[in-house]
Amino acid sequence: MSTENFTPAGPGAPQPEVKKTLAFVALALCIVASILMLAGHIITGQQVAAATGGDISQMGLDELSSAMDVADKAGNQLLVFVGIAGVLNLVAFILSLVALIKSHPKTMPLIIFLVVIVLPGIALAIGRAVQASILPSV
User: Fold this and answer.
1) What does the alpha-carbon distance between residue 75 and residue 79 come to, in Å, rounded to a whole number?
2) Is the dihedral of CA 127, 129, 133, 138 positive or negative?
3) Of residues 15 and 41, more confidently modeled
4) CA distance 136 to 49
5) pTM for this entry
6) In this structure, are residues 110 and 20 in contact, taking their beta carbons and an 8 Å threshold?
7) What is the rounded (10 degree) CA torsion for 61, 69, 52, 124?
8) Contacts for 103 with CB less than 8 Å, ≥ 6 apart
9) What is the mean pLDDT of the chain?
10) How far apart are CA 5 and CA 38, in angstroms?
11) Do 88 and 58 meet the contact criterion of CB atoms below 8 Å apart?
12) Which of 30, 78, 94, 101 has the smallest number of Cβ neighbours within 10 A?
């Protein structure tokens, strides 16, 4: 048995498929975070719209108070959704950056890195637009 061409893999040299896996995990985390942001905006918008029930100017003081309570709870719920999405996006950013730095054909990790940067902003803008269309105009 010859050991002339044997080079052991060092602990600091990840294999190429590990780098691709990091990039795809980052992309998956970013997509999940974007879905969380969209769902948070849609759910809280529907809760507030259901609480107000239509024309706010025709509500009494008790109805306005209960609608404000629902809106406050919905705002806190939206903060939870966006907070979890933010943490997921941070992890996705770090993973995609590591994959970009360590890989040598950088095309695929670069595209995923750009998607991880741009997709949360797009998801947030779409979520805000959908929430604004759900909520009644005052």
Assistant:
1) 6
2) positive
3) 41
4) 7
5) 0.76
6) no
7) 140
8) 16, 19, 20, 23, 109
9) 83
10) 53
11) no
12) 101
